[in-house]
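User:
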Amino acid sequence: MIQLLDKWNRHYQNADFSLATPARVLRENIHLLAVPGRALDLACGLAGNAIFLEKQGFQVDAIDSSSLLIQKLKQYINRNQLNINPILQDIETQPLLSSHYDVIVVSYFLSREIFPNIIDALTPGGLLVYQTWSQERVSDKGPKRQAFRLAKGELLTLCKNLQLVYYREDEMIGDISKGFRDKVFYIGKRC
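Assistant: Predicted structure:
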């Protein structure tokens, strides 16, 4: 675990939050989210989702396990007077609070074991917005290991206790030079 944290701390050594962008599934479906509300950018990285949600009027927590990243994010938030709460937390060992968030956004992070906790952390009617890598890929982008990519339809199984709102996985059909290849997009609602 320490080696993994060291890896992410090195990765974020030169973090530039001005380059952060929200997940495509969030950006293109923002109209589905009820504002104001409490939102979480889980495994936030450069906090593109958190910054986007804060600008939409959400009260936002941004969680990551990289201490260096959270330190740099705090500085960025203070300089830019953003209303985002950065939290240093390893969500694989420290669970989220139950029924706490109206929206949880996860992009390019996959830990299958914590899906029950993520779903439990949603308020009734809350939305999970998820975007990550697919095992059906047409490019070299994303993680090399299949374990860090979703199998076809796997996200639907992991989120079977949520009501499906939006799902897209273009697979390997048609003109693979077009569309949203390499990725899975999902929005589900806790009933």
